[in-house]
Amino acid sequence: MDYSQFGSMIPELIVLGIFMVVFLFDTFSGEKGKKILTPFATILFLLGTIAIWIVPASGEEIFGGMYINNTATNAIKAILNVGVFIVLLQSAKWVQSDEVAIRKGEFYELILVTLFGMYLMVSARHFLLFIIGLESASLPLAALVAFNKRHYESHEAAIKYIMTAVFSSAILLTGLSFVYAFSGGSLYFSDIALNINQGEMSGLLIAALAFVIAGIGFKLSLVPFHLWTADVYEGAPTAVTSYLSVISKGAAAFAFFIIFVQCFGTVYSDAWEWMMYAVIILTITVGNLFAIRQKNMKRFMAFSSISQAGYIMLGAMAADTLGLASMIFYIFVYIVSNLGAFAVISSIEDKTGKLSMDDYNGLHKTNPYLSFLMTLAMFSLAGIPPFAGFFSKILIFTSVTGTGSWALYMLVLIALINTIISLYYYLLVVKAMWISPDEPKIEKFESGRCQKVSFFLCGAGIIFFGVVPYIYQYCYDAVVNSSDVIASIMVFVFR
């Protein structure tokens, strides 16, 4: 084995290096050292994120073609790192609390392990490596969900998450066993595509695709694989909920695109096209309708994230260069918008423990800056111009309609109708903060310094990502310069 190949895994090596430094510092620094663990880990992660943005991707396949780090995978990893950095800022005050402080080292270590697993997911070109990455990301998340060990809700959420994760992994592995049998005994994405293209459509292949969609659909909270989402989001610590809502979704969406275009693109219209139409329509619609009924802000954001997952997956249906670039850009905008909302929710919960939407009545009278950021986040998630969410939705819709398929036109029409529904429930939060005549239930308070930095980053991203073309251009160039992605897209287009 040529160990020099590990040198091409620069993002993974950076995350593992940060993990080892944080682990050793937490283990041997003593009580005085642990007091500075939070700023130490956060600054160290920031430096690692900058390094991933700066260091160019090698673009070469290693370990016999099982792994690749090209410009597209490097871009999504850098974007995920930005989201994780914001989560670390938002969680700084929570990890310093009496209940969590003794275990804050474990919090950072578990976050880094899950991120490492997600890196493997997006760079995998072999299902064995993909499963290793998926489980490396999923199992530590169960520990993070149960991090508030003295809270019954956290225990319940962890049990629901781990049980659903186990069953979804079993379903995914069953589907992959069918794929393995059908593709002549290979788990390489390219070999599977070649064998499927040369064979005939069969019921076994359709069943395999259904099982694979179900297994990955769990990670994305696609309907009908979403039933765990609201309960887990509500029971988990808010910092973990925000991490679950954006980081894991972004990695899973990118991996979904690569798997289905590279492996199964040649049987798109024969096998999985209509399956995904139904799943996307159900995901957007069910997420929107159930969000209207929610009063708990974490459950509200859970159903919002389910709906947003449906919009993200529209990029997979376009399955071209513009579709993947629009998906990556949408993930970036979704990260800053969703984390902007969670920044406000986390700050209020840390100070008051309140999570009901009714508690936000009249919030602008006591905390105008929090109300302003939450309004920006709601407007962006709803797709109201001129905020970033509007442009991300326009680009994702444009990528889908550019294919010229009447079915995809109908899919976009249904998504547009659902956007109007989402506008209603997002504005319920805005109405509570700015229009409700009730006296404010939340007194004026000061957020922590790290939380204020996260407020600024999210607010700036929501305002400027839509109007600064560099961000989208970066995503588009990253996709165009990824030769293996372009090659699989060309096979898909001329299927």
Structure at a glance:
This protein is mostly helical and 495 residues long.
Characteristics of this structure?
single chain, 495 residues, mainly alpha, two-stranded antiparallel sheet, 21 helices, 77% helix, globular
Textual characterization of the structure:
With 495 residues, the chain is an all-alpha fold. The chain has one domain. The chain is built from 21 helices and two strands. It has a two-stranded antiparallel ribbon with strand order 1-2. Strand 1 and strand 2 form a beta hairpin. The longest helix is centred in the C-terminal third of the chain and has 32 residues. It is globular. 55% of the residues are buried.
Estimate the global geometry from the Cα principal axes.
Answer: globular
Indicate how many domains the architecture comprises: 1
How many strands, which pairing sense, and closed or not: the largest β-sheet? 2 strands, antiparallel
Low-confidence parts, pLDDT < 50 over ≥5 residues? none
Number of helices: 21
Strand order of the largest sheet: 1-2
Look at the structure and give the mean pLDDT.
86
Strand count: 2
Q: Report the helical percentage.
A: over 70%
Fraction of residues in β-strands: under 5%
Helix-strand sequence: HHHEEHHHHHHHHHHHHHHHHHH
| Rg from alpha-carbon coordinates | 22 Å
Question: What is the assembly state of the chains in this entry?
Answer: single chain
- Structural class from helices and strands? mainly alpha
Separation of termini? 37 Å
